[in-house]
Amino acid sequence: MTLIRNEDLIQSVADALQYISYYHPLDFITAVNEAYEREESPAAKDAMAQILINSRLCAEGKRPICQDTGIVAVFLKVGMDVQWQGDMALEDMVNEGVRRAYLNPDNVLRASILSDPAGARINTKDNTPAVIHTQIVPGNTLEVKLAAKGGGSENKSKLVMLNPSDSIVDWVVKTLPTMGAGWCPPGMLGIGIGGTAEKAAVLAKESLMDPIDIHELRERGPSNRIEELRLEIMDRANSLGIGAQGLGGLTTVLDVKILDYPTHAASLPVAMIPNCAATRHAHFTLDGSGVAEFVPPSLDQWPKIVWDVGPRARKVNLDTLIPEEIAKWEPGETLLLSGTMLTGRDAAHKRLLGMLANGEPLPAGVDFTNKFIYYVGPVDAVRDEVIGPAGPTTATRMDKFTEELLAKTGLIGMIGKAERGKVGIDAIKKHKAVYLMAVGGAAYLVSKAIRKSRIVAFEDLGMEAIHEFEVEEMPVTVAVDVNGTSVHQTGPAFWKKKIAEEHALEVK
User: Fold this and answer.
1) Which of 45, 169, 422, 498 could form a disulfide with 39 if both were Cys (CB 3.0 to 4.6 A apart)?
2) pLDDT of 327-375, one tens digit each?
3) Which CATH code is given to the segment(s) 310-491?
4) Domain map of the chain by residue range?
5) 142-149 and 71-79: which strand pairing?
């Protein structure tokens, strides 16, 4: 028998979540750097440079890689010979560890979990509860795998019930472009095959806990059908040309992970869950000897990348900006923004439009005339920070609000992550506005450009409150211009064609 103290599991979970908030797995860093080195698309290469620089800054400063510090997913394998010292339930121990991690004053993590999801959607304020999967297995240890899963990538999860004769690869290749760039590629695809619908989804999630090793598989060659599928899906996914942040390029997927399970003769359930550029997971085992130890990696293992867009970037003063100026911006152009902007996400948009519909004035301090709104829910500041990590959230969620906000407020531009949908683009084109893209997965790097921050409205919304940011040379890309041209459409189309042409030449 092994005796494990309640406190040892609680503190181990807390330590693990703090650790993964600022340390990327080194296998991920190596894979992104290799993709960066061989990337030919300037826009995609730029995005990966920001991701890698952000990762190093977070490792140095011990601050979150992404402002979305995730929903906690935990896989427990509890040995049948384990006993507990303490009277807490297993899930309560895990959730106390989550609570302790997210409220750590030295590195506050953003609380994103809402209770009553179909109703009032009230923030639990400590990121609990976690989503916990438990197995009772032979043995005398407790094995723990946990991850902090961002909403942007989780929202792109897909589940299908295929016919047994259908091609899994064809379904993945058809489905991946429909996921857009809100999952922040480059990243991994987790795929679960078999069982029932819910089993396939759990398999897909668990598969993402494994390290990136597809390069090793490619070198030694596949030894079974699952390994063949991994390579086939990887190659065909990258041939789509989606690229880093959906800007078009050679690398969209860094690895494909697959777990399977026996299924009914009439069924072929398949789930696909992507992991984003803020891949965060940790594994540890408790054997009764105390709290798990997490050894900090050496900073020497991060690539030393210099990123300077100054010579080719357009500098923009947000405080003197007029519509005539934004009309000159080109799709794909890099801008460095300085001046003031307002922030707002889903909850703030909904409340603002409710006020407008009721004929109420907007809150004092919320004037969108010739201004930009930044879709962000920042992490709280610690120590001498102006603001915590403040990367963009997925812009398509705001598409349904865009027409009315542009029509009624004087807003001329938006900043967010990934592509805009047709509704959003149509509104942008109609009102001669623009949409700018900041890199998802570079939240700490973005926060370094924010010189001042204050809440101007809706403080009760927590991280979704409206802030006023004063920024200095914040890097962004013109993603949709005043004519409605989207680089998330033109970029992948160009690189898909280019990759196909090069492949045809190689075959000849």
Assistant:
1) 45
2) 999 999 999 999 999 999 999 999 999 999 999 999 999 999 999 999 9
3) 3.20.130.10
4) 2-287, 310-491
5) antiparallel
